[in-house]
Amino acid sequence: MSRFTASVRLVALAAMLQGCVAMPTHNAPSVIERLARADTALERGDLERARRGYESVIEQSPELVSPYFQLGLIAYGAADPNAAIEHFEAALARDPGHVLATYNLAIVHLQQARLLLDQHERLAPVSAGQPGLVDLRRAIDALGKASPPRE
User: Fold this and answer.
1) How does pLDDT run across 111-151, given as a tens digit for each residue?
2) How far apart are CA 88 and CA 74, in angstroms?
3) Directed axis angle between helix 99-123 and helix 66-77, to 10°?
4) Cβ of 31: how many Cβ atoms within 10 Å?
5) Do residues 109 and 86 touch, judged by C-beta distance below 8 A?
6) What is the largest CA-CA distance in the chain?
7) What pLDDT is stored for residue 66 in this prediction?
8) 24 three-state secondary structure
9) What sections of 1-151 are H helices per DSSP?
10) 114 contacts 145 by C-beta, under 8 angstroms
């Protein structure tokens, strides 16, 4: 075999291998399919499968807003306010005008404020009785004790 023929074969083999790498695998679901599967799992109440699905979508397409928002809802429902805040803020970092992420982030912060003010009242009842703090507690309570997240 001549040196030229061997070189041509190597180039052809390299081109064929490169083509295999570039070809999409038909077994791997697209981002849209993964997102739809996660949404379906969430609708069915399979929160663990939904969470894994949204995390998988984020790994593949971290610029998308929806999976972060949905993970925020899941975290909120699991009474994990820190994770909910993290996910809603991630959604807002990608879309500052995301109305529902803004609303839900505000609700989580309000609930945390209620808990902290309750703790303050238990720890320092005299201080908590100051007119300004009493007014603040009333204002936060007026916003609704159990404002649910919005989807």
Assistant:
1) 999 888 888 889 898 888 888 888 888 877 777 665 666 77
2) 11
3) 30
4) 15
5) no
6) 96
7) 97
8) coil
9) 3-22, 31-44, 47-60, 66-77, 81-94, 99-123, 125-128, 131-142
10) yes
